[in-house]
Amino acid sequence: MSEMEMMLKGYGLTTAQILYRLPDHPVLLQSYVWQDYDLAPDFPAMKDFLKFWQEKLDGPLHSVRYVHRKLISASEWRSVKGEIVVH
Description:
By secondary structure, the protein is α+β, with helices and mostly antiparallel strands. The chain has one domain (3-71). Helix content is 22%, strand content 33%. It has a three-stranded antiparallel sheet with strand order 2-1-3. A hairpin with a 7-residue loop joins strand 1 (12-21) and strand 2 (29-38). The longest helix has 13 residues, at 44-56. It is elongated. The model has no long low-confidence stretch (mean pLDDT 88).
């Protein structure tokens, strides 16, 4: 599915800041930024990524902060029946 099709179906850009502990130095926190198109309010793509992180990666999660923005919606489109030619 193209990005435009995803946006028309309600997907929006989700950005998550993930803080995790370093496996060798658990007192230190490292930051990771994840970004993808996802559906609010359930966020299935982000939940799948966090599940993968917990199952496959060594650094345990400390916290996750995220923001979601719908970039476009179907109500913002309208049919244009004419064309204006400039020069």
